[in-house]
Specification:
Distance between the termini: 32 Å
Strand content: 5-15%
Helix content: 40-55%
Largest sheet: 2 strands, antiparallel
Strand order of the largest sheet: 1-2
Structural class: mainly alpha
CATH superfamily: Winged helix-like DNA-binding domain superfamily/Winged helix DNA-binding domain
CATH class: Mainly Alpha
Number of strands: 2
Shape: elongated
CATH topology: Arc Repressor Mutant, subunit A
Number of domains: 1
Length: 132
C-alpha cells in the first residue's frame, strides 16, 4: 500500500521516544522505550543517542540509567526532533530538485511545495508539552 507521507522508523522513534521521556518524572531506559514503541532496542539506543548529542536529552549510564529531558518540553518542537534525525528540510519547487522543468507548467502545480510548507509549519508549532 502506498503512502503519500512516510516517516522513517528513526523519526518515529525520535518523536515518540521524546514524548515518553518528557512524560516521565524519572529516567527512562532504552528497553522501556523499545517495548513501548515495539522497536529494536539497538535502533532506539542509536536514535536516542543522536538526541543526546543534539542537546535534547541527558544520558545516564549504568544499570539504573536512562534518559531525561534536557530542555523544557515547551521549548522543543517536533520539527527540531525530526530535523535532528532526518536533516534540515529544504523547501523547493520541484520534488526531484530539477532546476528547469521540461514542461511549460508543473504537473504537480507546486502541491509538493505547499504540502512541505504546511508540514514544516505544523511541526514547528507542535511542541512536546502538548503531548504530556
Amino acid at each position: 500500500m502506498a503512502h503519500i507521507v512516510n516517516f522513517s522508523e528513526a523519526a518515529f522513534i525520535a518523536l515518540h521516544g521524546m514524548v515518553i521521556v518528557a512524560k516521565s518524572n524519572e529516567m527512562v531506559n532504552v528497553v522501556k522505550i523499545a517495548e513501548t514503541l515495539n522497536s529494536s532496542k539497538h535502533h532506539v539506543a542509536k536514535v536516542m543517542q543522536r538526541l543526546v548529542k543534539d542537546g535534547y536529552l541527558h544520558s545516564h549510564r549504568g544499570p539504573t540509567g536512562g534518559f531525561t529531558i534536557r530542555k523544557a518540553a515547551g521549548e522543543i518542537s517536533l520539527l527540531d526532533l525530526y530535523e535532528s534525525i532526518e536533516g534540515k528540510i529544504e523547501i523547493g519547487d520541484c520534488p526531484l530538485d530539477h532546476p528547469i522543468c521540461p514542461f511549460d507548467r508543473c504537473i504537480f502545480n507546486n502541491v509538493t511545495r505547499k504540502l512541505t510548507v504546511e508540514f514544516v509549519e505544523y511541526m514547528r508549532n507542535e511542541t512536546l508539552d502538548k503531548y504530556i
